[in-house]
């Protein structure tokens, strides 16, 4: 199930893999643009990329992981210090304190050591305690080096905050029709040199196999994504969509896969974004409404990005464009 | 209002968006090359990229943010410690000290904890105080990890220090004329493989709509940007500028949008730079002066980059180039 | 021994280098895709890139290096402090302690200083001790800055976790045969825009020289590497493999060199992967088995990546594809 | 003095800049591949990129800068603490200590504060001292964040360790001659997808102006740079070098500018390298010697990279290649 760029239809049929006709409930991409495949077979360790998992985990999950690791390591070192003996820690061995009090005190000593805080009201006495503390502070610094890397990697990761129109439309276009959707940039920084690729995956009723077809775009690259970009596939005689209506697409379980590639101007980094529309996201005989940017007092154009979702249904008779 | 690369004029008219004729005061790009659009509609949180804001904020603003956050967090923890009780902090509970004195003391203890300074002349006693301090030192390390990332991201961000000539000229070129501007590199490192794209946005008096037109460049790529690069659009019969004079461009509110892409040689990073000239930045019948680099004793060529702004007005009769 | 992209055979013969016929035991790439060349001649220092070595060392080796350096620096500073004199360190100069006890105490003081732990139960007295401690803490911070960089560089390094089929097959393909191998992505993140280049290096029995030949691929680029990708070179009359059987390839010591280039979608980074197959990795008259992904309850496709190794031997008679 | 890619000769003459005929002592690139231009005119601050300077400074210079800054900041804070008064620092105000002793003590306290070491045998008393210390520790953390960034940026900076042959040769090539030089990779990691561009800058005796001419390469890209790559410009009738001998090139002050672009395989980063040969680096009637790699016991090829400098002078009669 590799998706080919500019592949001939003929070639695909002969590749002999990935053309299985899955149940209709299976999407190729899920709603967030993630490829809907779970890879196994090498064991959990080899199928996981830990740095990647930390980078892309939710913020709350990351905080829990960090906090949990912090408590765990401190408990482990508290145990170690406890084994060494509370009497080897100055300022801790208060006469009359219970065993559990001692352990808690060693836990706090561990926390003060791993963060290199080192108040010093508790301090190691003797070789074993000093060696353990020296190792813990080294471990602390390396752990926080790792945490620094993960946090930096997380926040500096190139992201394409692309907003896609909720629906994909079949609109009047030139003398025939066009498949259209709109994208915009959600954030204040700029996306430049944006490129789009549109692929359709559909069951072929003749062969009962799944095909991946490239849909040619009228314009596949823009220099600026200042407001919005309507991406158009002309449904002419060369188009695999020619003559099909929504019901056909539903029946053949069509899925439209979109790849957007751009340069995040702030970091000069390439960013990628994906989405897929299923056939039931398709609206026939509809037309996107124009955006209505307003000029602010400061001479800026203010635009509400959610306007890209808006469309008008049109009657079949009015296939020619009217100014709005 | 997406700007298309190499788009046919015909196609644009049929896209049906972004061709609204805005008030003349609206620039597409502001003087610093920022796209003049403010995006709203998803709420402040979703329309903002915080890391990006910190990376691109002014230095003084960033210092204020860091200092403000530092004071705020210390005040919050001082409150927490105060609630726990000043008697749980050794070295602080000086007999006869006022409530406000205690609070200030806890504020300083907080500062010594969050930075992992930990002098130890004030130290936590008991579980509540120790837990709060352990958490604060963890928070401190993570915050400074974030600050490290922001500072690194800020300083290592690829930047193209391109200097543009103040004006864009219409000069004699070949047997006719050329639209010309000059760029140079302000800094000591090198920019290599520089590329330029020149787009004009102009009102079409016939349709009363705004058009975006690509202006073909004589040379659109240079290997080195050692001294300066004069970027030339030949105004021949194929040019949309053919036959237009400055007054026409003023009337039709022309704006020249320039995109420069290069590789910063030190970091091998792609960098981007943008600028726009309005019609009133245009000088007709003028010619850029040659730069006058001097050979230094060390065998280097010394050049003053501001010389790229200099031009000579020429009389109509002297359209042929003379050696200077 | 540079390998050329799309080079003509004729040109190679005339380049006059790198065509020496090495012993058969020499592989161009080793099993892990590393180029099998050891570069010398500039001295150990100039032929080594230390950052690179640290980044690509095994985890256990890196831990040893860090631990060893930590102990070494502390021993060196303990020596320095010992020379300055134990009497210049408060809290250490316990009456009756032996020389070696003093040294060990100074070692622990050094560890508490370089990590900026600073409990303070041992502290410097006088100028020499204070200066040494001030320098050690500076050195400590810079060292841990370096360690942070190495750890970050190590974990954020773009990696392509490509799994290659164990064998390269000669399978029925169209009306003739094809050279085929399969790749897949081991990890959960996505690889996009994958590209493959296949080169064969083989002894030319006529000239007794080694040649590098590009083998044309049916499809050399895929948008997604969702499940697996079977990379196919059609052995038709234009192929240098036309008419050769495994024994010929063994005799001429053929090696198939594969370069995979892709974009790691999480980081938007380019990643590279390499492998080589020797002639004895080749299986004639075999065909890859289809993968058998299962749809999970959550609507995901679950696939075991090790299935890409599986193939069926086929009898010569059954050269036409049968559905499996 | 911008150098154009694939520019027509005709175009260059008409660009009207950068064609000044400089003194012969002026090189376009210096021996290390740095562009030989010093940019001024915007003031020292605006013509300098500080991060870039720190990244590319020599190691000894960087250590001096860091050490100097460390001492300077500590002196400044010692002054501040001295103004606040030594009596506000516990553990310092030893009866009978001199003013200078106090200052030195405050200097050490500052060092313990800025590194967040905080032994605590000296500690701030009162608000002014505590505020100053809290600010210093914040400043310390931010400074070391900066230092971490600079060190990481420095060591992770993509570098192309390309070694160039000392000379550029005119060798027999095909039925005529070729301009040739060799490159190799000095380090153990791999360079892949290497590309070369060769430009000649030469005085045109007719116009007395300097021209930049692209010299076409036989092969301009290799997939691997495993051993060495001999880069060849065929001096045929289309070459601007056709019919010229070394004396002509010396007279016209020819300089050969080479740009190498590759991907450092460890980091998947693009790297760039440059060099220039002057006419007196040219050897006529010479031929590079073959490298002599040896197969090691481990099956590796061991090659001494400095062998790329070696060439044999050949007599005019023996223009045809002989096996060596």
Features:
homotetramer; 324 residues; alpha+beta; Helix Hairpins; 5-stranded mixed β-sheet; 5-stranded antiparallel β-sheet; 7 helices; 31% strand; elongated
Describe the structure in your own words:
The structure is a homotetramer of 324-residue chains. Chain A is an alpha+beta fold. The first copy, chain A, has 2 domains: 53-156, Orthogonal Bundle (Helix Hairpins), CATH 1.10.287; 159-313, Sandwich (Immunoglobulin-like). Helices cover 30% and strands 31% of the residues of chain A. Chain A has 7 helices and 18 strands. In chain A, the strands form 5 sheets. In chain A, strands 5, 6, 7, 11 and 14 form a 5-stranded mixed beta sheet that branches. In chain A, strands 8, 9, 10, 12 and 13 form a 5-stranded antiparallel beta sheet that branches. Chain A has a two-stranded antiparallel sheet with strand order 3-4. In chain A, a hairpin with a 4-residue loop joins strand 12 and strand 13. The first copy, chain A, is elongated. Chains in contact: A-B, A-C, A-D, B-C, B-D, C-D. At the A-B interface, helix 4, helix 5, helix 6, strand 8 and strand 10 of A face strand 1, helix 1, strand 2, helix 3 and strand 4 of B. Strand 10 (221-225) of chain A pairs antiparallel with strand 1 (2-4) of chain B.
CATH superfamily of the largest domain in chain A: G protein-activated inward rectifier potassium channel 1
- How does the overall form of chain A come out from the CA principal axes? elongated
CATH architectural grouping of the largest domain in chain A: Sandwich
How much of the residues of chain A is beta strand, in percent?
25-35%
Cα end-to-end separation of chain A: 44 Å
| SSE series of chain A | EHEHHHEHEHEEEEEEEHEEEEEEE
What is the mean predicted local confidence, pLDDT of chain A? 84
Please state the oligomeric state of the protein chains shown.
homotetramer
Report the sheet with the most strands of chain A, covering strand number, pairing sense and barrel closure: 5 strands, mixed
Number of domains of chain A: 2
What's the helical proportion of residues of chain A? 25-40%
* Protein structure class of chain A: alpha+beta
**How many β-strand stretches of chain A?**
18
Name of the CATH first level of the largest domain in chain A: Mainly Beta
Count of helical segments of chain A? Answer: 7
């Amino acid at each position: 199930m590799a998706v080919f760029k500019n592949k001939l239809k003929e070639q695909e049929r002969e590749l002999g893999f990935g053309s299985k006709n899955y149940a209709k409930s299976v999407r190729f991409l899920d709603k967030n643009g993630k490829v809907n495949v779970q890879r196994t077979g090498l064991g959990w360790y080899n199928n996981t990329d830990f740095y990647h998992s930390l980078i892309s985990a939710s913020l709350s999950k990351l905080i829990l992981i960090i906090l949990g690791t912090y408590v765990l390591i401190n408990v482990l070192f508290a145990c170690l210090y406890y084994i060494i003996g509370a009497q080897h820690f100055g300022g801790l061995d208060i006469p009359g304190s219970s065993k559990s009090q001692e352990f808690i005190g060693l836990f706090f000593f561990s926390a003060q050591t791993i963060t290199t805080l080192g108040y010093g009201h508790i301090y190691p006495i003797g070789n074993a305690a000093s060696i353990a503390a020296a190792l813990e502070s080294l471990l602390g610094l390396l752990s926080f080096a790792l945490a620094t890397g993960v946090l930096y990697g997380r926040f500096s990761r190139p992201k394409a905050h692309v907003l896609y129109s909720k629906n994909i439309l079949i609109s009047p276009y030139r003398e025939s029709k066009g498949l259209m959707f709109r994208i915009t940039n959600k954030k204040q920084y700029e996306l430049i040199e944006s490129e789009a690729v549109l692929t359709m995956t559909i069951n072929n009723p003749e062969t009962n196999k799944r095909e991946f077809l490239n849909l040619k775009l009228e314009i596949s690259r823009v220099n600026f994504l200042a407001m919005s970009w309507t991406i158009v596939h002309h449904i002419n005689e060369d188009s695999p969509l020619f003559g099909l209506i929504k019901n056909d697409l539903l029946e053949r379980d069509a899925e439209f896969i979109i790849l957007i590639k751009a340069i995040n101007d702030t970091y000069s980094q390439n960013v990628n974004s994906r989405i897929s529309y299923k056939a039931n996201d398709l609206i026939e005989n509809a037309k996107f409404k124009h955006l209505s940017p307003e000029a602010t007092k400061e001479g800026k154009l203010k635009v509400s990005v959610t306007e890209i979702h808006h469309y008008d249904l049109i009657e079949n008779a009015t296939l020619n464009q009217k100014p709005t």
